[in-house]
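Example 3.2
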Amino acid sequence: MKSGSIYSSMIISAFLLAISGTSLVYAQQTSNTFIEPETAALTTFVDSVAVAAPKIIAAAVLLAIGLVAGKVTARVVEKAAKKIMQKANLKNISESHLIEETVGKFDSAHLIASTVKWFVYLFFIVAAINALQLAQLTNALTSLWLWIPNVLAFVLIVIIGSVIANYIIKWVNHELVVHHYGGTRYIGVGIKAVIYSIVFAVGLTQIGIGQSVIPTLVAAFSWSIAVALGAAIAVGLGFTLKDILPAAIVGASHQRSLFKVGQKVKIGDVSGVITASEVLHIIVTNEKNESIIIPTKDLMHKQVTILHSKSKDQHVLTV
């Protein structure tokens, strides 16, 4: 009996030992299954941070430098632009009421400075992203950065065009007033609209807007201006020739045979001696030694009295 119980105890002990060994092996394998991936992931993260840390630091430094450089450059450009604007007597682009009604009133010097500032900002942003080696984002921002000079060109074209337009409009208004033309206000507004339309059309082509439509509009404006100038010249020549041709006819047919230098004449209310006789006018000098120019066309409807210098005879005639 004792030997049988001992044998049974040995069998049970061996079974328990086998079970416990299997459990230990399973537990060890299970712990390795969970710990090893986490350790590998943590190691990879640390390695990535170690590799990326210099890039991140470089990008941060570039952004800080860009922020300072952009602000400093903007201040310098704004001061220089204000001085130039003051010399050109154009502080605001919207000095013209047409632009003020369209885009509102804003400081053109500040606009130029802001454009230059963002050009500098984008330059350093692109450099920072390039340091991080983000290829797609770098390409996108590089394209945007290369587009900024076109925006700056648009701004400069509008400003310079505004300066030129203001001078042209002031000159045209002055000439219209001097020559007493009617409707100066409407003529000035029309010229202003045409000039600013051309300026904005040329400027918008710099930023890639309406590259196919705007040249057509500019061509249409050009042809309109050419037609208007041609019509103005034709009308002007018509009115001018209406006065010149009769005078030329009279001068050619009668003047040379009737009016001679040295004759004493009375033409209307003017009396004196003829001191010059031309095709389109004669000059009469009165007793006060005043030279009076009389257009030949006026002789057609005035009574002319010729006093011969060697006799007291008078010849009264209507030319």
